[in-house]
Amino acid sequence: MPPPARNGIILSPNVFTAPYYPMSNSTFVQEALTVVGAPEILVNVVSRRVRLLGQGARPLVEVHPRWTLMEIALREIADHKLTYELFEPKESPAQPKKRKTQIGGK
Description:
The chain is mainly α. The protein has 3 helices and 2 strands; from the N terminus they run ββααα.
């Protein structure tokens, strides 16, 4: 039995429910991962950028209306619009703790 027709147009069940994505999520992730290199760093960079976008920051790339904040952040990284910087914490020289000792009966 064919799908129901409205005004002479045959509708299939998934015509309007399937979202249109020019690229899949895995493509976004793979492209961003080639730029960053380490998945652990990518997760941190994306999560910080998603937080900023959620707070109202403007996207640095052209955005498709159905993209999520995560996809926007991944696209920014893949297009080299968003960078990151690793820093090493300063190491303090190991010094023994000084104890205050009281001499006398005070």
